[in-house]
Structure formats: structure tokens, C-alpha cells
Design brief:
The complex is a heterodimer of chains A (115) and B (115). With 115 residues, chain A is an all-beta fold. Chain A is built from no helices and 12 strands. Chain A has strands spanning 4-5, 10-14, 19-21, 24-25, 31-38, 45-50, 56-58, 64-68, 73-78, 87-95, 104-105, 109-114. In chain A, strands 2, 5, 6, 10, 11 and 12 form a 6-stranded mixed β-sheet that branches. The N and C termini of chain A lie far apart (41 Å). Chain B has 115 residues and is an all-beta fold. In chain B, the strands form 2 sheets. In chain B, strands 2, 4, 5, 6, 9, 10 and 11 form a 7-stranded mixed β-sheet that branches. Chain B starts with a strand and ends with a strand. The chains are: A mainly beta (115), B mainly beta (115). The A-B interface holds A 32, 36, 42-46, 49, 51, 90, 94, 97, 100-108, 110 and B 32, 34, 41-46, 49, 93, 95, 97, 102-104, 106-109.
Chain lengths: 115, 115
């Protein structure tokens, strides 16, 4: 079955540290890839998405992610985190066009940034 | 644009009663709406996919007679938890997508507590 795996359950960083959150998926066909963020007490917001084209995707708030097809990975990065980045981060995948758009979410990674 | 609302945001009900949760797309027409369930500190699990005017498609293991989904218009979907039990207590989140794309816009969620 299609699955999404996020390697880190809880990451603790100091402000200005660099961030990389891992995400791997198991589906071998065409996929669309997403990173969502959930700030404490708020709803899910889209950080960035990859459908096709340049595998390096830039999103909001200085985040970026790189799609490496050979590794089935879509890792999220940010060169310098801020305290306000403290949140839960979810990687998600859905199948390519015509497949109904169902999102499969990873387990989530809780990021705590110390001021 | 692309705002999704849910009502209520928080509900407490007694065991054995039913509760209805509404999901509305406020500024766009949503051909497809999705219902997720999120347990504390866990990921979102897709419960069902609903397309306007047709029956919902439930994920494996989700009781369709217990979680009734109606998508009667392009801006409204409802989830009714029938004969609720304490184990149904959870955070229920809906999302909506336009017909032409695959990006889902998420609602703020509804916290259900069954006593």
C-alpha cells in the first residue's frame, strides 16, 4: 500500500540553525508531493507543493524542498529557522492526475525552535 | 481565496447521541471534499472522499453507517457521527478541492468529545 514516512518525530533546534526534515514515499508511479504546516491551535496550511518540473521547489516563509525521484524522497529544508517556525510539519503525497486526489500523510514531525 | 470553514469548532455530546459537523467552502466551488480524523500527536487519516451529488467513498475500516457523509452542494459537505461513543472523540478535519486541480484547502477542524 502507498505510504509516506517521516523520519523525525520531534526535532529541537535553536534559532538560526538549519533545518532538514526527511520524507520518503512508497508509491512508484507519478505523484504530487506536498508539505503542510500546522501551527499550534491552527489549521493545516500548505507550505509548498511539487507537481512537475524543477525538482527544487520554493515555498512560503523561506522553506524549500527537493524532489529526488530515485530516492522517493521530498525533504523539506530551511537555512535558518525562527522561533515562529515551531509547529507540526506533515509531508503528503497523492497520485498523479486522474487518480482522485487522495492525500496520504506522513506521521508528522514536531519542530520546536528555542529562542 | 480558497477558505474552508467548519462548524462547530468544538462539540461535546453524550454517548449514544448523534452529532453533525459542517464543512463549507466559502469562496470557491468544491467538487470534492475530504474528511480526515486526527488523533493527538498523530497524522491525519483519510476517512472518506465525497463528490458533489454522489455517494461518498469510504476508506477501508471506516464504518459508513456510523460516519454519514453528505455532499449536497458545491459548497457544503456534512459529516454525521451517529450513536457516538467515547472512542469517536477526536479532531475531525475537512478539506475541499476544486475540480480542476489537486490542491486541497483545509478547514480549521472540529474537536468532538463524547462523554
Amino acid at each position: 500500500a502507498q505510504s509516506v514516512s517521516q523520519h523525525n518525530h520531534h526535532v529541537i533546534l535553536s534559532e538560526a540553525a538549519s533545518l532538514e526534515l526527511g520524507c520518503n514515499y512508497s508509491y512508484g508511479g507519478t505523484v504530487n508531493l506536498f508539505w503542510y504546516v500546522q501551527y499550534p491551535g491552527q489549521h493545516l496550511q500548505l507550505l509548498l507543493k511539487y507537481f512537475s518540473g524543477d525538482p527544487l521547489v520554493k515555498g512560503i516563509k523561506g522553506f524549500e524542498a527537493e524532489f529526488i525521484k530515485s530516492k522517493f524522497s521530498f525533504n523539506l529544508r530551511k537555512p535558518s529557522v525562527q522561533w515562529s517556525d515551531t509547529a507540526e510539519y506533515f509531508c503528503a503525497v497523492n497520485k498523479g492526475r486522474g487518480q482522485g486526489g487522495k492525500l496520504i500523510f506522513g506521521q508528522g514531525t514536531e519542530l520546536s525552535v528555542k529562542p | 481565496g480558497a477558505v474552508v470553514s467548519q462548524h462547530p469548532s468544538w462539540v461535546i455530546c453524550k454517548s449514544g447521541t448523534s452529532v453533525k459537523i459542517e464543512c463549507r467552502s466559502l469562496d470557491f466551488q468544491a467538487t470534492t471534499m475530504f474528511w480526515y480524523r486526527q488523533f493527538p500527536k498523530q497524522s491525519l487519516m483519510l476517512m472518506a472522499t465525497s463528490n458533489e451529488g454522489s455517494k461518498a467513498t469510504y476508506e477501508q475500516g471506516v464504518e459508513k453507517d456510523k460516519f454519514l457523509i453528505n455532499h449536497a452542494s458545491l459548497t457544503l459537505s456534512t459529516l454525521t457521527v451517529t450513536s457516538a461513543h467515547p472512542e469517536d472523540s477526536s479532531f475531525y478535519i475537512c478539506s475541499a478541492s476544486r475540480a480542476s486541480g489537486y490542491e486541497q484547502y483545509f478547514g480549521p477542524g472540529t474537536r468532538l468529545t463524547v462523554t
